[in-house]
Amino acid sequence: MALSDPDIFFMKKALRLAAMGAGMTSPNPLVGAVVVNGGAIAGKGYHREFGGPHAEVNAIADAGSEARSGVLYVTLEPCNHYGHTPPCTKAILDAGIARVVIGMGDPNPGVTGGGAEVLRQAGIEVRAGVLERECRAINQPFIKYVTTGLPYVTLKSAATLDGFIATSTGESKWITGESARRFAHVIRSRVDGIVVGIGTVIADDPHLTARLPGKKKYRQPIRIVLDTDLRIPPGSRLVQTASSSPVWIVCGPDAPEAREEVLRVAGIRVIRLPAVDGTVDVPGLLKELGQNRISSLLVEGGGHVLGSFIESGYADEFYFFYAPKILADPEGVSMLSGGPRLKIADCVKAHGINMRKLGEDLLINGRLRERLY
């Protein structure tokens, strides 16, 4: 495709629109669309929230009568089935769209190829695969979930430059500055669930909520604690707020039933899973969460929990915040704790690295898989 290709220009517009739905559409994908008539944008739309109209429908409605004989640019293949909303192919045909440009095909095994083929059979010109990689990149959680049944796993940690998340006494507030902490809340608002270990709960007594002052509408993740023996204190913030915002606790099969009953009365969902070496089995956990419609998961720690996801090979992405501080204390708490690696060749490799400054802090984001889903 030539750099001057107008299809690329308008697909970039659709991609920017798709990103505006971040955090609101799960388990559906992020999708953006624009309607172009006479070389100018006549309508714009994106999938705003789960259960609401799809991007194509919103863009066509925005274009009104100018949609007829126009070109529709959409980041994901239009659906051709009834779900929470009618098929987008019907809206496209009813609007009189003459040409459809698609970023990526629908990865859902049950619907792949359906929408584009229906449009072609109806006489509409269809071009697919425009900025496909970019369109896939913004929907990695959706693609992984519909193709594997497992949630997309993102690791997040905030550390000193030498990799510590707390002092030897457990003090950790605050390693990073306000800008980094604010962005961390943005990340929380974009996932279905957030995971920490019981050690973090006991040490920090966190809320684990997304707090975005000034933003009117955003979702809260389900708060999930890995607590093999149900040691969570009844007076902790998580237990005390469970009736207003969901808390799930994952324990081992031998956890005391009396403690489970106390937590259930407080409004907490207790999930018993097999334990491996005294800790929750990561593959089993992800399978259980996937069956409960958790399509994206943020793992915040501590170091042993993050390390267990890396060791299991199930971590997909990471956000590591580094403050311009050096602890240099061998008794400090490390950001990651995994198995021994005696050779540099055994290191876990990171891919697609991006870096940005947030105030005085540095954020490094990347993938733990070489290829996109």
How far the N terminus sits from the C terminus, by CA atoms, comes to 23 Å
Oligomer: single chain
Classify the helix fraction into a percent range.
25-40%
Main pleated sheet: 9 strands, mixed
Based on CA inertia axes, which overall geometry fits? elongated
* Strands, count: 18
| Total number of helices | 12
Low-confidence stretches: none
User: Helix-strand pattern, N to C?
Assistant: HEEHEHEHEHHEEHEHEHEHEEEHEHEEEE
Strand ordering within the main sheet: 11-10-9-8-14-6-15-18-17
Which structural class fits the helix and strand makeup?
Answer: alpha/beta
Strand content: 25-35%
Average pLDDT over all residues: 93
Task: From the alpha carbons, calculate the radius of gyration and give it in angstroms.
Answer: 23 Å
Describe the secondary structure blueprint for this structure.
Elements: H1 6-18, E1 32-37, E2 40-46, H2 55-63, E3 71-76, H3 88-95, E4 99-104, H4 114-121, E5 125-128, H5 132-137, H6 140-148, E6 152-160, E7 164-166, H7 178-189, E8 193-197, H8 198-204, E9 222-226, H9 237-240, E10 247-251, H10 257-265, E11 269-272, E12 275-276, E13 279-280, H11 282-291, E14 296-301, H12 303-312, E15 317-323, E16 333-334, E17 351-358, E18 361-367
Parallel strand pairs: 3-4, 4-5, 6-14, 6-15, 8-9, 8-14, 9-10, 10-11
Antiparallel strand pairs: 1-2, 1-3, 7-16, 12-13, 15-18, 17-18
